[in-house]
């Protein structure tokens, strides 16, 4: 039987294609034909996707034969257009090593520190939009310039050049654009960044590229990093701002609930990410060896494509999955991203796919310490990482939270879940456990949630 062609576009922006839901409801991975004629396994159940993403036998290396691609040409052809493997295409141990060199730039604390400036950028653009012609073009007035300005400032890219980036990255990401046009856009961005990094060498400033340049002399690596961040943070965030506004206007009851209680915002952001799952195919992989998954045998070299939006509407994982609901009392929505399955871990392995999907997390009001916290000295912090002991009087009552520093990739989910119990070190963003022994049932439940959410499976409880 020939495998059905994978539908790569949505018919309705608010819902996964019916065909993706049909594939999911088959109840096991199914072969599909990709746009280039190759076959891959489509995963539609949340459980299968989670299992796959935390399994080191699957690779993120987009240059490997068999890696599912949404365009007709294989990535090797794009590589000639200046495309160089970046973090997102790496596997451990290389992935963890490279990631640790930049994670200090993306800790929860760093993101919280950016908050006032980002707020100012948002406020200025909303003010300008309100003062301008009515009706306004939301995308031009707000959705595109906000992430564009933030990323440019963060990297140290002159904002005057943002038009160039917007046009080139839009071409690069437009799957229907001819391969040579996409390769030319990729090369233009690469050449621009190479020149910029060169100028930073002459005149370093207080920005990410200059700081990274001080750490590494590898210009190509920096160009690759700049490339990834510009692309990863631009269209994604812009699309989510626009879609988020539309979803809230389309659900006035949810908008009213959010306005009445702005503390629901973090839950609403999670819900919007689940509801739209805009980067749904971004978590595709290729098997390095034969793997049994969800009741099928995936052979070494076969690709796996994730139907993220269908999985985020999986009735086995969510009650009323088609509803948009910002109510924080609902069990937290699970975006398709790397979270360990809640089972005891066998042999420790080096972190790999769980290192993916870590990007700067939106700063949340409680991300910054609520009260000055006594911070352990550097020596004390190492102690926290290595010898997490339960105070004697609680030994028999509470389990101890243990962190494996070699696995941690600084995703910061633990800090967001429980800022009183967890922190990150400033250099590498590695987890610091401030209170290894939960002192109440609530604290224990937060610790369990942090452990569940940790994408690199670096945390565990010693009962
Ligand atoms: C709503 C906004 C965003 C969405 C939906 C999104 C989605 C994703 C997805 C699905 C991946 C995983 C790819 C994989 O597993 O192979 C990823 C990785 C990544 N994203 Fe984002 N992203 C967003 C915003 C951003 C922003 C603002 C930045 C940077 C400023 C960023 C930087 C990255 C980086 C560096 C990676 C690679 C992480 C690693 O491999 O360790 N993303 N993103």
From TrEMBL:
<dbReference type="InterPro" id="IPR001128">
    <property type="entry name" value="Cyt_P450"/>
</dbReference>
<dbReference type="InterPro" id="IPR017896">
    <property type="entry name" value="4Fe4S_Fe-S-bd"/>
</dbReference>
<feature type="region of interest" description="Disordered">
    <location>
        <begin position="316"/>
        <end position="388"/>
    </location>
</feature>
<dbReference type="GO" id="GO:0004497">
    <property type="term" value="F:monooxygenase activity"/>
</dbReference>
<feature type="compositionally biased region" description="Basic and acidic residues">
    <location>
        <begin position="346"/>
        <end position="358"/>
    </location>
</feature>
<dbReference type="GO" id="GO:0016705">
    <property type="term" value="F:oxidoreductase activity, acting on paired donors, with incorporation or reduction of molecular oxygen"/>
</dbReference>
<protein>
    <submittedName>
        <fullName>Cytochrome P450/ferredoxin</fullName>
    </submittedName>
</protein>
<dbReference type="GO" id="GO:0020037">
    <property type="term" value="F:heme binding"/>
</dbReference>
<keyword id="KW-0503">Monooxygenase</keyword>
<dbReference type="InterPro" id="IPR036396">
    <property type="entry name" value="Cyt_P450_sf"/>
</dbReference>
<keyword id="KW-0560">Oxidoreductase</keyword>
<dbReference type="Pfam" id="PF13370">
    <property type="entry name" value="Fer4_13"/>
</dbReference>
<keyword id="KW-0408">Iron</keyword>
<keyword id="KW-0479">Metal-binding</keyword>
<comment type="similarity">
    <text>Belongs to the cytochrome P450 family.</text>
</comment>
<feature type="compositionally biased region" description="Basic residues">
    <location>
        <begin position="367"/>
        <end position="388"/>
    </location>
</feature>
<dbReference type="GO" id="GO:0017000">
    <property type="term" value="P:antibiotic biosynthetic process"/>
</dbReference>
<dbReference type="GO" id="GO:0005506">
    <property type="term" value="F:iron ion binding"/>
</dbReference>
<keyword id="KW-0349">Heme</keyword>
<dbReference type="InterPro" id="IPR002397">
    <property type="entry name" value="Cyt_P450_B"/>
</dbReference>
<dbReference type="Pfam" id="PF00067">
    <property type="entry name" value="p450"/>
</dbReference>
<feature type="domain" description="4Fe-4S ferredoxin-type">
    <location>
        <begin position="399"/>
        <end position="427"/>
    </location>
</feature>
